[in-house]
Amino acid sequence: MPPTPAATTTERTGGRRPVVRDNLATRALHGATALGVAVLLATGWWLWSGREGRPSVISRLVDEPDVEIHRSVGWALVVLAGLAMTLGVRGALTFVRETARVDRGDLRWFRRWPVGALTGRFARHEGLFDPGQRIANVLFVVSLGVVIGSGVALTTLSGGPTFATMVRVHRYATVALTVFVVGHLLVVSGLLPGYRGVWRAMVGRGRVPRATARRLWPRSVPDEPGPPDGAAPPDTPGG
Ligand code: HEM
Question: Closest ligand 1 atom to the C-alpha of 50?
């Protein structure tokens, strides 16, 4: 689901006015997906490495075999995706529209990305998501779609050439998804100075310092009409 337009959700807190970029439903969906994917990656890699007979830490914690945990959480992810596309259809459509957008200046944004990632001085873009996020969105949707589709096929098949193909597809998509998740964690960790503070958009109450939000998504965070203490926070990485 898409971020909430920041202009409508600003708050006053001691002279700084953070923006709530992602609403509660979006943050909850993101949190549930992240938790589900983490469990599926952990149990999936565990099974793939041939340790099915030995219970993993997760398996010992919930006292269920890894295969059962993997299947149940897999189905939970299917339900979650279904909810996002039905109850959250408006957000889902905005997500698709904003992910598919292409503007003049996007190429410039990519060319300047290394400078932006290191200094926080990104080139301007006009989207709700920056051009890099749009690519990440596509990679996540496709790899998750493939891993979910092949996983559902595995639960309904038992042996045969299609099963063998699905196992291969499920494995390849897992490798791709793992790479994307690691890349995503690297960006949101704030290790790259330009992205410092971005994690706040999806964690806890979702409040991002206004300067951080403006640096990353200038269009969706309009100029503040006048900060309460008359001093806007400087637009430098570090939120
Ligand atoms: C983030 C999503 C997922 C990841 C990363 C993932 C990863 C994996 C991996 C690596 C394996 C081991 C393959 C092997 O043993 O060679 C596996 C097995 C399996 N997965 Fe997934 N999976 C995901 C989602 C799902 C979903 C959504 C379902 C179904 C609803 C599912 C159903 C299964 C089944 C049935 C197996 C075979 C388990 C067995 O009987 O040994 N997976 N998964």
Answer: 15
